Amino acid sequence: MDDIVHQAMAKWPNVPDCYGWLGLDARGNWYLRDDQAQAAGAFASGLPGSKGSLLQHDKLIDFIGRNYSADGQGRWFFQNGPQRVFVELQMAPLVWRVQADFSVKDHIGRDASIQTCWLDEHGHLFLQTDTGLGLVHTQDMGLAADAVDLGLWLPQDVPSQDVPARFGFVLSPMAMQNA
């Protein structure tokens, strides 16, 4: 986490948490969700306008990535100075990019060590790593298939509805907050 974030947290310890305003899609893209996007539906609903606006500012995306983490309840968040901004997830808290040597980097660019491989009934491939669970990016499924064919990854079946609970993350902290 950035030093400036730690300093802001110490200076303003009681800033309320923020829900629903930031989303991460299945391709590792960040979305800003204003009131209109939130009113259009849940982030992962697929309803028109519900995703919000794609973030494209590289320095902001890097700042979010450096300050992206999970709490003890499995809710992923971006620590924005003193405020914790909980992230709505389309599929998983991390999105893996498979490298030519079959190593992986998350959507933020961090390396990880693969522990297990999981496949749901929709053909989504998840990797559990030393840094958490993530979805393999759709553009990297060819490399992922090669890793499976070579016996490097041994996919185990997992029902899609079981993925968040099994791997300890929350898809929608906002829905959890409103429950």
Q: Approximately what portion of the residues adopt beta-strand conformation?
A: 25-35%
Q: Please compute the radius of gyration using only Cα atoms.
A: 17 Å
How many β-strands, per DSSP?
13
Give the end-to-end Cα distance, rounded to a whole number of Å. Answer: 30 Å
Helix content: 10-25%
What structural class do the secondary elements suggest? alpha+beta
Shape: globular
Unreliable segments (pLDDT under 50, ≥5 consecutive)?
none
Indicate the mean pLDDT: 93
Largest sheet features: 7 strands, mixed
Order of helices and strands: HEEHEHEEEEEEEEEHEHH
> Total number of helical segments?
6
Spatial order of the strands forming the largest sheet: 9-8-7-12-11-10-13
What does this structure look like?
- The longest helix is centred in the first third of the chain and has 9 residues.
- The two termini are 30 Å apart.
- The radius of gyration is 17 Å and the shape is globular.
- Helices cover 25% and strands 31% of the residues.
- The chain is an alpha+beta fold and 179 residues long.
- It has 6 helices and 13 strands.
List keywords for this structure.
179 residues; alpha+beta; 6-stranded mixed sheet
Give the topology.
Blueprint (H helix, E strand, L loop, with lengths): L2 H9 L6 E7 L5 E3 L2 H6 L12 E2 L3 H9 L1 E3 L5 E5 L2 E7 L4 E5 L5 E3 L4 E2 L1 E6 L5 E5 L2 E5 L4 H9 L5 E3 L5 H5 L5 H6 L1
Parallel strand pairs: 1-6, 7-12, 10-13
Antiparallel strand pairs: 1-2, 2-3, 4-5, 5-6, 7-8, 8-9, 10-11, 11-12
